[in-house]
Prior knowledge:
Blueprint: H1 6-15, H2 19-32, H3 36-44, H4 50-59, H5 69-76, H6 81-94, H7 100-106, H8 112-124, H9 131-140, H10 144-156, H11 160-166, H12 174-187, H13 193-196, H14 205-217
Helix pairs in contact: 1-2, 1-3, 2-3, 2-4, 4-6, 5-6, 6-8, 7-8, 8-10, 9-10, 10-12, 12-14
Amino acid sequence: xxxxxxxxxxxxxxxxxxxxxxxxxAWRVGRARDPRGVDALAAAAADPxxxxxxxxxxxxxxxxDPRTFAPLRLLLADEDADVRAMxxxxxxxxxDRDAVGALQAALADSYAPLRANAAEALGVLGAHTAVDxxxxxxxxxxxxxxxxxxxxxLIALGAADALLAVLPRYDNDLPVLLDLIExxxxxxxxxxxxxxLPLCDHADADVRAxxxxxxxxxxx
Length: 220
């Protein structure tokens, strides 16, 4: 165990001579989970070094103190993509529902890890207003991790209506159709059963099997 105190790390967070020293201090302050560290971390969100700001974004997620909201939103707009990605993840963890708009906008960022973290955070935050944006990512994003995170959030949000609305459009796009069927099966919304039953007679064997599985999950 370190003999250094929280006060030591708070000092180094603000006055450390090297980025490594300040980044380590941010990590230590976050680990302490002490309310006294929140304001110091918030101030360090403006550190000139991206590595320090990354650790600050991570450390701010260790508490649900509303004082973390503003610095994390600032970091969500950081010039460094990894900092933005960490801020998105942390905003979900701290429960900042007022960040939903900014997180939804982040779904269009060029950096895939940020899009994935933003998609996950929107589900954690119960952001039903983001369903259409999440569905677009699930159906169209080029990155598999983003598509997966979007699907998991759609499931968490119980967005069966949105999936059912687009299901007929993908009858001939088998990869997307299979993803939609599986997602509806995992949602557990019995209303999807009537839409899935006809697919049990689909021309494609994989679609038939997936639809039969999903119907069983829904009590059919």
